[in-house]
Amino acid sequence: MSYKHQVAEKIAATLASMGVDTLTKEAVYGMLETPPNPAMGDVAFPCFQLAKALRKAPPMIAAELAGQLSGAPLRESQAVGPYVNLFLDQENVAEQVIGTILTQGSTYGNSHVGQGRKVPIDLSSPNIAKPFSMGHLRSTVIGNAIANIMEKQGYEPVRINHLGDWGTQFGKLIVAYRLWGDETKVKAEPIKELLSLYVRFHEEVENDSTLEDQGREWFKKLEDGDEEAQHLWKWFRDESLKEFMKIYDLMNVAFDSTHGEAFYNDKMDRVVTLLEEKGLLTESDGAMVVNLDEYNMPPCLIKKSDGATLYATRDLAAALFRHESYDFAKALYVVGNEQRLHFQQLYKVLEKMGYAWSANMHHIPFGMMLKDGKKMSTRKGKVVLLEEVLAQAISDVQKVIEEKNPTLSNKEEVARQVGVGAVIFHDLKNFRLNDVNFSWEEMLTFEGETGPYVQYAHARACSLLRRGGYQPATTVNLASGALDSKEAWAVITLLNAFPEVIERAADNFDPSQIGKYVIDLAQTFNKFYANVRILAEEEDVKASRLQLVAAVVAVLKEGLRLLGLAAPEEM
Ligand code: ARG
C-alpha cells in the first residue's frame, strides 16, 4: 500500500472517530492534494467538504484533525486555515517504497483490475502492397504500448493485425500488374514495385477511364474466388507480409492474430442477413445502407450496387467475430483520427442491431504524421518509408557507439535497441491526438526528452550498481540520514507514483503518461547522481543509496518495457 493510501486510511479512520462516517478511504484518497511548496508539507487534506456534516468551520475541523493524526508514515500534522498539512516520515516512506520495488521487481505497479478478461486490440493494420507508412508506425507503437499497459492492469490483451488485404484496390492492382507488371521486379522489391504499379494505375486512369471499371470487375472476381485473381492476391499478400515482418522484428512487436479484412470474406453474408432480418438495410442508389439519420451521421454503406462489400461490412463481421471469440471486457481500435466517423458509424450500427456490448468498443484515435506541415499521401508516392527511418536511426546510433564506447560488447543489438527506441519514444512522448511533424533531426536526436536519454540514464544507473558491487536484496534497512536530501526524496516520491501513472495511462489509453514519467524519473535520478555522492561513501550509506539506484533501475526498465523499448545495461 503506497504511503498516500496509508495517509488516506489514517484520515478516514480519524474522521470516523470524529463522527463522519460518509467518507471512505478511497474518497479521502481522491481529496488529497500536493501542497504547492514542500515547506507546506508533503500531502494536504482540505476540510471544506466536512463543514456540513460536522457543523463546524473548516479551520476548526482542520485543527481538530491535525491534533489527532500521528504515527508512521507521518512525522507531523499542521492545521493551516482549512487545510491539514502533513509531513511524512521520509525515512520510513523511503524504506517502504524501495522495499516494495526491490521485492516486486518488474511486477511493481501490477494491478488486478482487469481480472484476466480479454481485450482485443486492433493495431498496426497496414495495407498489403503499400508501404508501411508513418501512420501505421503510430498505430503499431501506440497500440503495442496500450496492450502492455492493459496487461499490467490485469487484462489479457489480444494483439490483432487487421491487415488491409481486401477491397477494390486489389482489383486495381491486379489490373495494373496484368498490364505493366514484371514478376522479377516484384520479387526483388515487392512493396516498392507494387506501389509503383498502383501509382501508375492512378496516373493512367486520367487518360483511360475504363481502367476503373476493370479494377471493379477484378475485385468482384477476387471476391467470387476466381483462380487467377486469388493467385495474384495471395502472392502480393505473402510478399508484403514478408516485408512487414522485417519491421515488426526490428521493433520487437508480435501479434496474436493476423486476421486481416480478407479473413471476413466468408463471414459477411451473415452480417448482411442479420441486418436484413432486423430490418436495418435500406436501398440507396442501388447500394445497401444502414440509415443513421437519427444520429446526424451519413448512412453506413454495406454493399455497393455491384454487390461488392466494403470496409465497414468487414469491420462489422470482425466485431461480431471478436465478440464471439473473446467475450471481451473492452475492444480497442488504434486507428488514425481521420477514421473517427467510420468507427462512430460502426458502433451505431451494432447498437441498432441490439448489441449492448458495442458500448465496450473504443476507437483510440491518433493525430497525423505530417511532413512539411502537410499530409503524406500514398497515391502520390509522397511517403517517408519507415524502413528508411529505422535504418537511419540504427546507423546513427552505431556511429555514436563507435565514437564513444567502441569496446562495448553486443554493439549491433544495442544500436538496434537504441535506434528503434528513439523512433518509438519520439511518438509516445506526446499525447496521441497531437499531430506529429516528421523531422529527421528531431527523431534522431538523443538528447533532451528522448528514448535514448532515458535508456542512457538506466545504463548509467546499472553501471553504478556494478561498480558499487551492489548485491540484490529485498530487505531494506536504510542507514540513518543516507537518503536525507531533497534530491533523494524527489526520486522516492516519483518511484512511489509509478502505479498511479500506469492506472492513468490505462484509463485514458494514453502511453504518453508513461513517456513523460520516465523522462521525469531519468532527469530526477540524474540530479540525484550529480549532487549526492554514492560510491565514495561509508559502506552503509553507500549500500542505502545503491538500493535507491536499484529501485530506479527496476522502474525505468519496466516503464521502458511498457512503451516497447529495451533497456540495455550498457551503452
Ligand atoms: N488498414 C486500415 C488503414 O490503413 C486500418 C485498419 C484499422 N482497423 C480496422 N478494424 N478498421 O487505413
Structural commentary:
With 571 residues, this protein is an alpha/beta fold. It has a domain at 3-88: Arginyl tRNA synthetase N-terminal domain (Gyrase A, domain 2). 54% of the residues lie in helices and 9% in strands. The chain has helices spanning 3-17, 25-31, 51-54, 58-68, 90-104, 134-152, 168-180, 183-188, 190-205, 210-223, 227-251, 268-277, 311-326, 340-352, 386-404, 411-428, 440-443, 451-467, 486-507, 512-531, 539-563; strands at 43-46, 74-80, 83-88, 118-122, 156-160, 281-284, 287-290, 300-303, 331-334, 361-364, 369-371, 374-375, 436-437. The chain starts with a helix and ends in an 8-residue tail after the last helix. The mean pLDDT is 93. The structure holds arginine (ARG). Arginine binds next to helix 13. Arginine binds at residues 122, 125, 127, 162, 164, 315, 318, 333, 335. It catalyses: tRNA(Arg) + L-arginine + ATP = L-arginyl-tRNA(Arg) + AMP + diphosphate.
Oligomer: single chain
What is the CA–CA distance across the termini? 35 Å
Named CATH topology of the domain at 3-88: Gyrase A, domain 2
Strand content: 5-15%
**CATH C-level category of the domain at 3-88:** Alpha Beta
CATH architecture of the domain at 3-88: 2-Layer Sandwich
Instruction: State the major sheet.
Output: 4 strands, parallel
Q: What is the count of DSSP helices, taking H or I runs of 4+ residues?
A: 21
Task: Give the ligands present.
Answer: arginine
Enzyme class: ligase
Protein name: Arginine--tRNA ligase
Domain Arginyl tRNA synthetase N-terminal: 1-88
EC number: 6.1.1.19
